[in-house]
Amino acid sequence: MAFKDLLERFKKGLFKTAQLFNVRGWFGKKVDQAFLDNLEATLIKADVGVKSTATVVDRVREAFADKTAGEDLVEFVKSEFRTLLADPRPGTLITAPRKPTVYLIAGVNGAGKTTSIAKLAQRLKNEGKSILLAACDTFRAAAADQLTIWAERSGSDIVKGAPGADPASVAHDACDRALARGVDILIVDTAGRLHTQTHLMRELEKVRNVVARKIAGAPHESLLVLDATNGQNAIRQAEVFTKSIGCTGVILTKLDGTAKGGIVVAVRQTLGLPVKFIGVGEGIDDLQPFDPDLFVEGLFS
Ligand SMILES: Nc1nc2c(ncn2[C@@H]2O[C@H](COP(=O)(O)OP(=O)(O)OP(=O)(O)O)[C@@H](O)[C@H]2O)c(=O)[nH]1
Ligand SMILES: [Mg+2]
Predict the structure, then answer these.
(1) Nearest alpha carbon to residue 204 among 244, 235, 239, 238
(2) Which ligand is nearest to the CA of 109?
(3) Protein residue closest via CA to atom 17 of ligand 1
C-alpha cells in the first residue's frame, strides 16, 4: 500500500482520538497553567496513562511556558509521542528459522481474536506463505465455524476438534499437521476468557505448553489481542495474560471505535510490550502493522 493510502487508513482509524486531541484548537493559545491542565486532561482521557501524560506535560511546560501555541508545539508533542513509542522493529512478527512459525493468539471474550487471525492469515497469504489455522476455541460451538469461513476465504488450511474437545489436543493435532505438511505458519486461535477465570487461564497455558513441546522455540509470538475501547482495563488484562503465557506483543483492535487511542502508549510504557498490529475497522484490510510515525501523524492530524 502506498504511503499516502496508509496514512489515510491510520487517520480514518484514529479519527475519534484525533478529534479529542483537536490540535487546531491549541493554535494561538497561551501556554499557561490552564492550557497545561487542559492538555493533561485530554491525554488522560485518551488513555495515554498517568506517567506518560505527566512526562509529556512537563516537557511541554519546560519548552513552551508562556509562549503561544502553534505548529512548533504540535511538532514537539508529536516527537514526544514518537519517543514514547520507539520500537526497533515496529509492526513485524518473528519468523522461526525452521518451519513452522507458530503464533498463539489470546485475549478476553470479543476482543477480536478470530477476526484479527483472519486478517493476519490473509496478509501472510498475500506474502506467499502457507497457513494452517488451529481452532482451539472448542468452548463456543460456533467458533470453529467462524474460523472455517475465514480459512476458506484466505485459502488457509484448518484443524478443529469436536465441540467441547480439549483445546490442547487440537493444538497437538495442528502441530502434527503443520510439521507433516511443511506449513510456513501455524496460527492458534483460543477461546476468549476473562483474565479472572483461573481454570480457563490454565487451559490456555496447557495449549501453550503443548505447542512448546511439539515445535522448537514455539510459540514464536504469543500475541495478546486487546480491545482499545476497554482503555486502561485492557492494561490489567494484559498483566494477567503476560504472567500466564508470556506475551511477546499486542494486537490492539477497534481503534476506529474509540477516542482511547492513547492506550497504544500505555501498552508500550506500562507493559513494555510492543504493539504489533492495530485494528482500524472490520474490513479484511483493516489490520495494519503498527507504525509509530503513521500513528502519531494520524493522532495529531
Ligand atoms: N470496528 C472494529 N471492529 C472489530 C475490529 N476487530 C474486531 N472487530 C469486531 O469485534 C467483534 C468480535 O470479534 P471476534 O474476532 O469474534 O472476537 P474474539 O476475540 O474472537 O471473540 P471470542 O471468540 O468470543 O472470544 C466482531 O464483530 C468483529 O468484527 C476492529 O479493529 N474494528
Ligand atoms: Mg473467537
Answers:
(1) 244
(2) 1
(3) 112
What's the predicted TM-score (pTM) here? 0.95
Return the amino acid letter for 172.
H
Answer whether 285 contacts ligand 1 (Cβ < 6 A): no
C-alpha cell recorded at residue 97: 528459522
Rounded to a whole number, what is the distance in angstroms from the first to the last CA of the chain? 20
In this structure, which amino acid lies at residue 42? T
Q: Ligand 2: distance of its center to the CA of 21 in Å?
A: 33
Q: How far apart are CA 202 and CA 166, in angstroms?
A: 12
CA dihedral 209, 214, 216, 218 (to 10 degrees): -40
Q: Is 222 helix (H, G, I), strand (E, B) or coil?
A: strand
Q: What does residue 90 show for φ and ψ, rounded to 5 degrees?
A: -65, 140
Nearest to 100 by CA among 196, 166, 33, 177: 177
Residues with CB under 5 A from ligand 2 (ion): 113-114
| 165-202 pLDDT tens trace | 999 999 999 999 999 999 999 999 999 877 677 888 89
